[in-house]
UniProtKB/TrEMBL annotation:
One of its GO terms (biological process) is DNA replication, synthesis of primer. GO terms for molecular function: ATP binding; DNA binding; DNA helicase activity; DNA-directed RNA polymerase activity; zinc ion binding. Residues 379-591 form the SF4 helicase domain. It comes from the Bacteria. InterPro entries: DNA_helicase_DnaB-like_C (IPR007694), DNA_primase_Znf_CHC2 (IPR036977), P-loop_NTPase (IPR027417), TOPRIM_dom (IPR006171), Znf_CHC2 (IPR002694). GO terms for cellular component: cytosol; DNA-directed RNA polymerase complex; primosome complex. The lineage of its organism: Bacteria, Pseudomonadati, Aquificota, Aquificia, Aquificales. PANTHER family: REPLICATIVE DNA HELICASE (PTHR30153:SF2), REPLICATIVE DNA HELICASE DNAB (PTHR30153). It comes from Hydrogenothermus marinus. PROSITE patterns: SF4_HELICASE, TOPRIM. This is Replicative DNA helicase. Residues 233-317 form the Toprim domain.
Length: 682
């Protein structure tokens, strides 16, 4: 019994969220995950450091590493697990005269040519009636279901005066009156759901205990006008009993149409059921994330069983079959249903995804964005790319920032941290939220550099605390700059799990605003325990891959700084006489991370790339940025040199400016200053 219970719980997708709702425990959807506070280590707080998995009804905390199933979670939340399962209709166990009486732990098969409403444990005809009560009829009409058209598929619970059925009397008083029985291929009663017509939660209970069974299976085979047994050629699979009754009501006069409704998105057809199903199957589950995922899984299962499968979908804004009729009315709903089936017919499901499948999903997503823009009164949707506020940098980034992993590489002491911090400052000034992981420097070091840039007070004076009262006032005023509210600093995260946990925390802090993540730097991130003794390159490759997963999972641009070896800096590219380094070879020194990157950039000294007339006056260091790797491919000139090169300068106030934009400025009267390498952060 315990094994059977665990199996049912694992099939009830989303049950864990209903448990959280019952406990009043806060959670929210972040990216593709449902997150909330950990009931073990974070009780009473709102830090969402725990993933609640809808598919397995389990949880895991990133902070204390606590994990477990639904029963473990109910214990932590101080919820009676057994009572919760009874409320959800997963189990049924009532007290009768002080004794516990188990209800219907599955119906015994009765092989009979006609439908059987009687089992060893219950007589459905004794507790229900084919005469539908008026309030049940009104309920069905409110759900756009004609009760007369579906009379063969429902029954009304009787007001029973029998001590052995006391629980049914209570059900009746609470409003549980609509009975919906399921039958197998032979017409044997398999499961019974009882639905509340007053809107009371839970809306439906399972009178058949653990058993769940599809609706409509008993109609796969039918007797034609000549008395011959026939089998339907096509079936449409829906989700839930209300959608099933809605479809039967809408197409009540279409005897050739076969509708089957699975009891939940996680239901799996048994072998004999799959064999009996028609050869062509259209899957039309609810238009939500759970329904879409279940459609894919069900299609794979049925395709492997040798069926011709088509995944159909409702129009945007329509959740299910019942809502289709509600919003469009019966006649238009029939037309739309025909269109839904026709579109699905054009794209048969295949176990191996084709580019056509990818294209359909892409165009559908674009269509949804256009409709949303039109609803907001716009001609077209806003691009999803994030602008940096620097035109030359946006050009280098192929128009701006997108979700994915970016890398900024360079040899030690080139100024990677300073460049990245300046970039963070620009993004914060543009209104973006920035999360800066510093695995090497302290948060105070980074703050002092930013304050120095804004005030012009030398950072060594701040570090040595040689500050006058006037300068203190300037620092206090600078600290009120809005960029300090847009930049989040983390110096405690050391592992990938730490980083992901902090990303989740920050996403909750910033709300709907887009977040840009910087990590300084790759080689300081601790490898996983499994790879602790493995090759260094393998460790870096694994870390980069997991950073890419974080970027894609939470739809973020993630920058990671990576250091290369000094020894490789003077390496010459093959076939070149110039002393320019082989940037791609040097980039690989980071540990083959380029395979996980959306784009990669290398910082170098400009050498001969400075424009004519340029004078180094008042600039700490000019730096060339070379695009080494891009999702859109390399851009090279006829000599195979990278042509995307941007000179970056003037770190004294944290400004990133293109030398090309400065070369025409009047530099003639500037005093050439000797470069002080200690003015940079390394």
């Amino acid at each position: 019994m315990k094994k059977e219970l665990n199996e049912i719980i694992s099939q009830e997708q989303g049950l864990i969220l209903r448990l959280l709702d019952k406990a009043g425990w806060n959670y929210k959807k972040i990216g593709k995950e449902y997150m909330g506070a950990c009931p073990v280590c974070n009780n009473g707080h709102n830090t969402p450091n725990t993933v609640f998995n809808l598919d397995t009804n389990s949880f895991k905390c990133f902070a204390c590493q606590s994990s477990g199933g639904l029963k473990d979670l109910s214990n932590h939340l101080q919820i009676d697990f057994k009572e919760f399962l009874k409320e959800e209709g997963i189990i049924s166990e009532e007290k009768n005269n002080g004794k516990k009486d188990k209800q219907y732990q599955g119906f015994e098969k009765v092989k009979n040519a006609n439908k059987s409403y009687t089992t060893k444990e219950i007589n459905l005809e004794k507790i229900s009636s084919l005469v539908i009560e008026q309030d049940v009829k009104e309920y069905l009409k409110s759900r756009f279901i004609n009760p007369d058209r579906v009379a063969n598929y429902i029954r009304s619970l009787k007001p029973i005066q029998d001590k052995s059925f006391k629980y049914l009397e209570d059900y009746y008083k609470e409003g549980y009156k609509l009975l919906i029985p399921s039958f197998d291929l032979n017409g044997n009663l398999k499961a019974v759901k009882i639905r509340n017509i007053k809107g009371k939660e839970p809306k439906v209970k399972n009178l058949s205990g653990f058993k769940q069974y599809p609706l409509g299976i008993d109609e796969i085979f039918y007797t034609d006008e000549e008395g011959n047994i026939q089998k339907h050629d096509i079936a449409v699979i829906l989700e839930g009993e209300i959608d099933y009754l809605t479809a039967k009501s809408l197409f009540y006069d279409h005897k050739a149409d076969l509708f089957i409704a699975i009891p939940s998105v996680n239901y799996k057809f048994q072998k004999e059921e799959k064999e009996a199903l028609p050869e062509r199957i259209f899957i039309l589950l609810d238009n939500d994330q759970a329904g879409k995922q279940a459609s894919e899984q069900l299609a794979r299962d049925l395709k492997k069983a040798g069926k011709q499968v088509y995944i159909a979908s409702y129009p945007e804004g329509i959740k299910d079959f019942n809502e289709l009729v509600e919003k469009l009315g019966e006649e238009k709903a029939k037309e739309e249903f025909s269109e839904i089936i026709y579109k699905a017919l054009l794209n048969p499901f295949t176990l191996t995804k084709t580019l056509k499948d990818t294209g359909i999903n892409l165009l559908k997503r674009l269509e949804e964005r256009i409709k949303k823009a039109e609803a907001e009164g716009k001609d077209k949707p806003e691009p999803i790319v994030l602008k940096t506020g620097l035109e030359f940098l946006d050009n280098l980034l192929d128009g701006g920032l997108r979700r994915g992993l970016y890398a900024i590489a360079g040899q030690p002491a080139i100024g990677k941290t300073s460049f990245t911090l300046a970039l963070s400052k620009h993004l914060a000034e543009a209104g973006h939220k920035v999360l800066f992981f510093s695995l090497e420097m302290t948060d105070e070091d980074l703050l002092i550099q930013l304050l120095s840039w804004i005030t012009g007070i030398h950072k060594r004076k701040i570090l040595d605390e040689e500050i006058s009262k006037i300068e203190l006032n300037e620092l206090q005023e600078a600290l009120e700059h809005y960029i300090f509210r847009n930049i989040f600093i983390d110096i405690e995260s050391k592992t990938i799990d730490d980083i992901e946990n902090k990303v989740i925390d920050t996403l909750n802090d910033v709300g709907d605003k887009r977040l840009i993540v910087f990590i300084d730097y790759l080689q300081q991130i601790r490898p996983s325990k499994e790879l602790l003794r493995s090759d260094y390159r393998l460790q870096m490759k694994d870390i980069a891959y997991k950073l890419k997963e974080i970027a894609n999972k939470y739809e973020l641009p993630v920058f990671v700084i990576s250091s290369t070896q000094r020894e490789g800096y003077n390496a010459k590219p093959d076939g070149k006489k110039k002393t320019e380094p082989n940037y791609i070879a040097m980039f690989k020194e980071s540990g083959d991370i380029e395979y996980s990157l959306y784009a990669g950039y290398f910082l170098d000294y400009p050498r001969e790339d400075l424009p004519a007339g340029y004078i180094k006056a008042n600039y700490e260091l000019p730096i060339k940025v070379v695009k080494v790797k891009s999702r859109f491919g390399h851009t090279k000139d006829e000599n195979h040199n990278q042509i995307f090169k941007v000179s970056v300068l003037n770190f004294k106030n944290g400004r990133l400016e293109d030398i090309k934009d400065l070369k025409n400025k009047d530099n003639e009267n500037r005093i050439v200053e000797e470069f002080d390498e200690y003015d940079l952060l390394y």
